[in-house]
Amino acid sequence: MTARIPAGRRWLPLLALLAAAACQRGGPGRAEARGTGESRGTDPALPGLTGDPTLGAKLAGALAAKGPAYRPRTRHLLPDGAPRYTNRLILESSPYLLQHAHNPVSWYAWGDEPFERARREGKPVFLSIGYATCHWCHVMEEESFEDEEIARYLNEHFVAIKVDREERPGVDAVYLRAVVMMAGSGGWPATLLLTPDRLPFFAGTYFPARDGERQGMTGLLSILREASAVQAEHPERLAEVTKELAQRLAARAPGPGAGALPGPEAIAQAVASLGRAYDAANGGFGGAPKFPMPAALALLARSHQRTRDARTLEMLEHTLAAMAAGGIHDQLGGGFHRYATDDRWLVPHFEKMLYDNAQLAVVYLEAFQLTGREDFARVARDTLDALDRELSDPAGGFASATDADSPGPDGRREEGRFFTWTPREVEAVLGRDRARAAIAWFGVSSTGPVGGRSVLHTPASLEATARTLKVGATELRGALARARQDLYQARAKRPPPARDDAVVAAWNGLAVSALSRASQVLSDAGYAARAVRAAEFLLRDMSAGGRLRRSWRGGAAGTPGTLDDHAFVAQGLLDLYEATHDPRWLEAATAVAEQLERHFADPAGGYFLTADDDEAPLGREKPAEDGAEPAGNSVAALDLLRLAELRGDDRWRRRAERLLAAFAPQLQDGSLPAMLSALDFALGQPLEIVVVAPAPGGAAAFEEAQRRIFAPNRSWVVATEGEDLAAQARLVPLLEGKRAQGGKATAYVCRARVCDLPTTDPRLFAAQLARAASRRLERP
To answer: What single string gives the DSSP state of each residue in 723-744?
Structure first.
């Protein structure tokens, strides 16, 4: 199980310890036998309590003072609309406490009185901390604190205290640290059990009312019963519980075999392995031939975000900068060739693949967010522009690739002929004077490595080249921009490489992802529009019976789609939803993932490459290695986790955990870096970010604030109040209870269903997001 699983389920080991202690009683304990009527304090008339008339009159007076316009927040109403129950919180001024004033729970506000009573009566304290606009606080109120059975048990066996974190930030801070220490993560509602001397012995966040609710979480009523029994019969055992729980959690570290979900050490081991293979002189990993390895680079970005390790960042930055400067990068047209035949990224295999470029565009976008380097943003933009220009199909999708070969002057095909230059060719386009700068900048010589022809690359910095040419850097930058455009136009007149115009669903899914991500990071709606065209094409022309086809060409779809097609397209649709906020893409992503589960799933975990009704003469393969493309299982793992977050359905998370556990050996040996990024998502408790705007376009400042923050493990939902909010809320439970406060766009940064304070300030939102995105990983 991962740290992302709701707090209730994470506490099963503690419940086992509590139950074991209770069993040592040899029979029903006094806590259970004592029951109703033993409370010796002054109480309101609530379930399980004998109401004190004096206190009752005081509470009734406070209620009457609210006036005729007052509407009690409770489902327990008398025929005349008055509240059936009123507790001490009616005497408070905090909006959050007043929200709970008509719960059947005998709440106290924070103070000495409830702890004195707990000590006097030998009861534990039930402490609940939240704030007035906390969605999951309201859920827990409705499910548990409005429940008369649970209220009766609390009233009979506990002293209950409600705290408004906005009102008492010091109390909140103390006990939130306890929640983080004991539950592995923190937030609101915070739920703790304390001894009468205010020491916590149990802590978590949200819990459902009863076992089995909310996808199998342990229920609050079970926790209360076990804890009350232990408190009454074995108070000495409470000190041991925390120690034993810590030991048991440590003992749950996964082993090397399948079936045990790996922890963060698998990511650390993979990063260490990349460090051993790292080419410190040239960037990249290993020697010739040298491949870009986008999945490994993406993992480095996530690792550095967590660890802030300088060498991890160096490996990422140096490799991306070296690739961008090398011949593997098309310096005129943008995009990347397949791989480098040498160890310096100079001489490529000149084929250009859709899947390479889509993945690399995302890596450069993420590196831009992580480092702030504008050159990385330019590379991503140029790469996507090249895809649109060179591989677009008029029907809406993207072709697969362009060839490495192109015709030379004699008509014979030569590898790289289209892309390589001689000094004389450069001079013919630019003239001798202008050519001098371009030849120096692009490293063109008469002894180039491809049959005497040079691959354009940028071997020195702009400043160093300016010094060599004895010109100003600003002047040189402008001259090179004009030269680049002129050389590109001249190259376009050459016989081009052939194009593989088959449209492959999986690779188009990667392209939709890259375009969608770029529209957010680069604030360019044009990329989102292009992604929409591709997605509509995939769902319209490459689907049959709800399932994807593998390829399309010339108006006809080909063979049935594979695991990769369904997993990659689902990923693209999820990214497109977050870019456009159009719920149709989330619905489509869910439908594609359901087909994947129905036709490709292995009951042992993970997915087969082919469907259950497709032929498999030698058996069904289950991809288990990330290569030039990520394994379909790697992408599927992250799809499932993201669907769990957005749709609020734990079935998706359970499938993801089963998948990750099934590939535990490969995760431990580092052969699945893309799946390790999914593991990073699972272990890091992804952010749940919601922005609600009062009118269309009202969230622009928040979207701008987040675009430079590297937060890969997140759900990003933007809605406009009215029909849009209603439509999205039907699909995304995160939107429940979220509103634009005070007529202003309002952001909610949440994790594990509990949120930071909502804000209407984009700067504060950016700070919340940056802080939350850097959270360290935890063991499952």
So the answer is: HHHHHHHTT-GGGTT---GGGS
Q: Is pLDDT above 70 for 442?
A: yes
CA angle 71, 76, 78 (to 5 degrees): 75
Fill in the DSSP letter of residue 80: T
CA 667/CA 69 separation, integer angstroms: 61
Q: Which residues contact 398 (CB under 8 A, 6 or more apart)?
A: 354, 387, 391, 392, 503, 507, 508, 511, 534
Residue 554 pLDDT class (50, 70, 90 cuts): confident
452 contact partners, CB below 8 Å, separation of at least 6: 422, 446
Q: Which of 293, 331, 299, 295 is nearest to 312 (CA)?
A: 299
Distance CA 464, CA 776 (A): 40
| φ, ψ for residue 599, nearest 5 deg | -115, -10
Dump the DSSP string for 164-184: ETTT-HHHHHHHHHHHHHHHS
Q: Is the pLDDT of residue 550 over 80?
A: yes
Q: What is the pLDDT of residues 10-22, one digit of tens each?
A: 444 444 444 444 3
DSSP 20-61: HHHHTTSS--HHHHH-TT---S---S-TTS---HHHHHHHHH
Q: What is the pLDDT of residue 585?
A: 98
**What is the spatial distance between Cα 605 and Cα 601, in angstroms, rounded to a whole number?**
7
Classify strands 125-130 and 190-194 as parallel, antiparallel or unpaired. Answer: antiparallel
- With 80 as the cut, is the pLDDT of residue 155 above it? yes
User: What DSSP letter does each residue of 500-560 carry, written as one string?
Assistant: E--EEHHHHHHHHHHHHHHHHHTT-HHHHHHHHHHHHHHHHHSEETTEEBSEEETTEE-SB
Quote the pLDDT of residue 777. Answer: 57
What's the whole-model pTM score?
0.69
How far is the first Cα of the chain from the last one, in angstroms, to the nearest whole number?
5
Q: What is the mean pLDDT of the chain?
A: 88
524 contact partners, CB below 8 Å, separation of at least 6: 381, 518
**Separation of alpha carbons 16 and 13, rounded Å:** 5
